[in-house]
Amino acid sequence: MPIRERAAQEETTNQADAAARAAASAGTAGLGPAAVASPRRRSARRKERLAGWLFLAPAIAYLLFAFALPIVYNVMLSFERTSPATIANFTAPYAGLDNYRFVQNDPTSRSAIVHTLEFTVGSLVGQFLIGFALALLFTLRFPGRTLARSLIIVPWLLPLIVTGVIFRFLFQVEGGAVNQLLSYVGLADRPIDWLDNPHLALWTVLIANIWLGIPFFTLLLYSALQDVPAEVREAALIDGASAWQRLRLIIVPIILPVIEVTLLLGFVFTVKVFDLVVGLTGGGPANSTQLITTWSYNLSFQVFNFGQGAALNNLLLVMAMICAPLYLWLSRGSLRRSSGADR
Amino acid sequence: MTRRQKSRALRWLSTLVAAAALVIVLFPVYAIIVGSFESTQTLFSGTFYWLPHEATLENYRTVLHAQKGNVLTSLILGVGTALLALVVAVPAAYALSKYRLRVTVILVSSMLVAQIVPSIVLATSLFIVFHWIHLVNTYPALILADGTYAIPFAILVLRAFFFSLPNELMYAARVDGASEWQTFRLIVVPLARSAVITVAVFAFLAGWGDFIFALTILNGSGIEPITLGIYTYLGNYSTDWGAVMAAATFALVPAAVLLVVAQRYIATGLTAGSVKG
Amino acid sequence: MNLLTKRRHRVLVAIAAATLAVAVLSQMGTSAATKKITLTEEDYFNTPGQTAALALYAKQFEAAHPGVTIKRQYVPFANLNTKLLTQAAGHSLPNLLAVDNPFVSTMISTGQTIALSDLKGFSTKGYFPAIIKEGLDKGKYYSLPVAGANSIALMYNIAMLKAAHVSPPKTWAQLRSVAKTLTTSDHYGIALTCEAAEDTTWQWEPFFWSNGGKPTFANVASAPGVQALTLWKQLIDDGSASKACLNWSQTPAASGQFIAGKAAMMVNGPWNFSALNQGKMFYGRQFGIVPVPTRVAGKHVIVPLGGEDWMISKSGDTETQQMAFEYIKGMQTPAMELKLAKLFGYLPPKVAVAKVYVKQAGPAWGVYVNQTLFAHPRTLGLGVKYPKISQAVWTAIQAALSGSKSVPDALNTAQSQITTILKG
Predict the structure, then answer these.
(1) How far apart are CA A142 and CA A136, in angstroms?
(2) Distance CA A246, CA A251 (A)
(3) If contacts are CB pairs under 8 Å, which of residues 157-216 in chain B contact chain A?
(4) Class of residue C12 by CB neighbours under 10 A (exposed 0-12, middle 13-18, buried 19+)
(5) Each residue's pLDDT expressed in tens, for chain C with a length of 424 residues
(6) Which residues from A are below 8 Å from C196, CB to CB?
(7) How much is the ipTM here?
């Protein structure tokens, strides 16, 4: 076949493939043009699909095993009227939407939801800013850099109960290190009741949570920054771009997928924080630090309304189901490029 | 200032800033180490001592003997969780980022939904499941449970890293006749070493620091991770804070060593030197 | 040749059969005598004394019952109830469980525990009625005490009171003024417990109940409750009690304050005796005990009944359950009761033994004996409703003491919740 015709045929096939891929990665079932692709392409794609499924098999099996049953059970519970008498049976009397109505009307549940959102947004902002700053810092070559990078994970080596205890210890009204420091420096004339004041307690827990999240953001963002090829950075330098411009226009777009997933996962992890709050305040004082997870635990295991606890917990599932399409939409460009839509 | 002087000043400034950040970040840990050398009475006295006051080794004497087995148990759980996470997550992340599959949307959404379920909710159901299949009180059960912290997270993170793997490498491998598995094993995984190790570190820490699954799934089995062991000193009728801090400090050491070693491998980036231009 | 082989063959077969028969018969013999039973047990006891006592008893029991092994698991106090509920959901409770007494009703209602009164050898003879009634449900008894009972009273630092020239308070007005006088730059007048947990309600109950408060808390927003909570609020507002009580447990946080000399008084129980002694505080020399003050002089003090109870779960066959009961029964002998009560700092559960104990244990027990004898079991008439009511109460206490609600408002909120709970 003359070269021109062959090239034309390749062109058509490429376009058809591109269309099919675009349709596939948007999740629709467009098979039309691909069906007339050459046999070589079809078998290659079939090989890929098979390989893809094989690569995914352990993960799918694990998801089904570890998550499917608990999620289904929890959803079922939220529609039942529960008590210690029913907990030993898989099913209990049907309660319709009563549990959800309770969550809607119960003042503590509502404030728990508000606290969770405040807490999560505050944590993410703090953790991201500090984590990113540290990650950028670690990309510079300075003496002690490797040691510093290793030590930044140390907060995660502590069991959460110990973290809760030590922060409680440090933020004590009298004799706590924080108040002692503040009085040395002269910033506080009276000791601050960090954990005993219903207006302050949530912020104190927030500080502890930001501390806890720094290693996560720092490490992930640092790993991503490693990906930025040195040539690109140098090219921008030569072009005379300022550091801020370099950051905003070159580096951030390159590491954007990792930033997106880090914020997403940071959100997911923060929204379900439990042990830290229990260790620090137990949800008090006066329920001022109740989050969705802690109040739900209380509903289930303190007053034995397992159905209500489940209903409150399911709000987390709803949040995840909102975040998922949002994240997928944000990262669709990356997926398209990565899975070879330009082949 | 000359360029070189400026960059040297910048380097030392960076060290200073890093040191300051570390001081703040590590201060609570420092407080624990100091506390581990103090008696419970000193800890209760209502004054914070910046250096151990009336230092004592009593706490370590209590803790070292009782907890050394527990530290080993926690290490096993951590390594087990890391291995499980890698085996399950790395191939899955690769498939979800490099292959055009229609289930990508469903699976990525499922990961997010799965990851948001609090462990306490999972613990109850997993306990019942493990009881049915007679797996309670075993290491595999705990490792499988600890995987819930790490696996969806690992898949999502690695997927994001894999996005930036240049496709030319894989096309080249395919053209050379490599199978999908060979491409994955010999080209992709070594290149993603940095991201894989980062994720393994997180998975290790998840297994290492788990409390709720250990509490729920273990019943007098003789398996006791350090997170449960510390609770021996935290009771309703007596609490030995000094011992708690000593146990925490003691547990820090092996984990820290392991992590410093792992960190050495996160030296190079994903694609440094592999693709020109 | 053939004949010899045949005979040898028959002999060999005979020997084999005989050996087999002996083996089988001996096995049957052994299994009848020593069937292997493992008893699993969960509790939250972690003081060295308690742990040693349980280990020693387990060893004695195993020696007396060959083939039986006791497997004990310690579960932290804050997590035991949750773990038991999870295990109940999975139909896999341990054979033996030691639960805090307000939780007994809840465990009964899961349906996963068995009635001890159905087992051979059960008897309620000689026990204090209040202790035994904790496990009574529909005419059957589901629990027996572990080490006995306890309650609370007012402990005070003798030296500090002497230095301030005050005597231990008997009324609320005295409590308030004494606490104020005792507050110096070194220590508070009194250490309260007002964290978001049961021990807050427990500590407030003597004040409320002795003031006309109903055991069901049905009148918590009326005068008895308002007055009792106002007293606590005044102690905090006066500066006599630290607001940090919002995060303090009864033991070890509040008791730790007292032992460290940071508070002159505290409301607490006899399980603290060993910790006090370790802190070089001895009854009559460093610390003294009086009943919890009442609003007006001479009123009868009603305190809540504390302690843990053994229960047996449905797990295992009837033989295992009976063996578990033997384990519990072995602790109910006078000798064991005396030993355990001493180790735990409790009052023995049988009247006669308690009398002996008080004589042995000394004057420190004087106040506690009278209090405990007439203490009120918290779940009586309330069952599973008690934990919910308790939460409403401690939430109100926290709201009032932290300043986020006024005393009447806080109690009104609790009242409406409690009315709903009592109705349902």
Answers:
(1) 12
(2) 6
(3) 157, 159-165, 167, 171, 174, 180-181, 184, 194-195, 198, 201-202, 205, 208-209, 211-212
(4) exposed
(5) 455 556 666 666 666 565 555 555 555 544 445 678 999 999 999 888 888 889 999 999 999 999 999 999 999 888 999 999 999 999 999 999 999 999 999 999 999 999 999 998 999 998 988 888 889 999 999 999 999 999 999 999 999 999 999 999 999 999 999 999 999 988 999 999 999 999 999 999 999 999 999 999 999 999 999 999 999 999 999 999 999 999 898 988 899 899 989 999 999 999 888 888 888 899 999 999 999 999 999 888 999 999 999 999 999 899 999 999 999 999 999 999 999 998 888 999 998 898 888 888 888 888 888 788 778 999 988 989 999 999 999 999 999 999 999 999 999 999 999 999 999 7
(6) 281-285, 287
(7) 0.87
Q: Which residues have a Cβ under 8 Å from the Cβ of A180 and sit 6 or more positions away?
A: B48
Same domain, A74 and A200: no
Distance CA(C135)–CA(C309), nearest Å, equals 8
Q: Give the Å distances, CA to CA, from C327 to C53, C148, C386.
A: 14, 16, 29
C169 in B contact zone (CB under 8 Å): no
Whether A98 is covered by a domain: the verdict is: no
Q: How far is CA B183 from the centre of its chain?
A: 28
Cβ distance A158 to A164 under 8 Å?
no
Please give the tally of structural domains in chain A: 2
C383 conformational bin, left if phi > 0, alpha if psi -120 to 50, beta if neither: left
User: Taking CB atoms and an 8 Å limit, are A172 and C107 in contact across chains?
Assistant: no
Which of A60, A296, A339 shows the shortest C-beta gap to B98?
A: A339
Q: Which residues contact A171 (CB under 8 A, 6 or more apart)?
A: A178, A179, A194, A195, A204
Cβ separation B31–A166 shorter than 8 A: yes
Measure the CA–CA gap between C338 and C357, rounded to whole angstroms.
6
pLDDT digits (tens, 9 = 90+) for B236-258: 777 788 888 898 888 888 888 88
Domains delineated in chain C: 37-145+308-345 (3.40.190.10), 153-304+379-423 (3.40.190.10)
CATH class of B66-263: mainly alpha
Q: Which domain holds residue A64?
A: 3-28+37-78
A149, A260, A297: residue with CB nearest B120: A297
Note whether residue A289 is domain-resident: yes
Q: Which amino acid is at B99?
A: Y
pLDDT surpassing 50 at residue A26: no
| A257 and A122 part of one domain | yes
What's the predicted TM-score (pTM) here? 0.87
Q: Are A58 and A126 contained in the same domain? A: no
- Does C343 contact chain B (CB < 8 Å)? no
Q: Check whether residue A195 and residue A313 sit in a common domain.
A: yes
Residue at A91 is within a domain = no
Q: Is A129 inside any structural domain? A: yes
Q: 3-class SS at A129?
A: helix
Determine phi and psi for A221, rounding to 5 degrees: -70, -35
